[in-house]
Specification:
The chain is an all-alpha fold. The chain has one domain. The protein is 90% helix and 0% strand. The chain has 2 helices and no strands. The mean pLDDT is 82.
């Protein structure tokens, strides 16, 4: 209890108001901090989403096309090897 509250008679009820006021200020500070933390995290998530949209998705799209091209080339190579195998077997028979 503060020195000022000790000087006021208890019948005035200021001690009760002072305690609720201190709790109220504490709750307000806690709410302000929580909202600030929430906004920071929401802003960080928005920035991350923008980075993913701008940088990562185009690279993934390009890599998908490259993978499709590589698969096509490997299929052609396998097909050519199969044809060579059949030709060798036909000549050897």
């Amino acid at each position: 209890m503060s020195a000022w509250a000790a000087e006021v008679p208890p019948a005035a009820g200021i001690e009760v108001l002072f305690q609720y006021g201190a709790l109220g200020v504490g709750y307000a500070a806690l709410a302000w901090f929580a909202y600030g933390a929430y906004r920071r995290e929401a802003d960080r998530a928005d920035r991350l989403e923008a980075i993913i949209t701008e940088r990562v998705l185009p690279v993934l799209t390009e890599s998908t096309h490259a993978n499709q091209e590589a698969t096509r080339v490997l299929q052609e190579i396998a097909h050519d090897r199969e044809i060579e195998k059949i030709r060798r077997e036909a000549r050897g028979s």
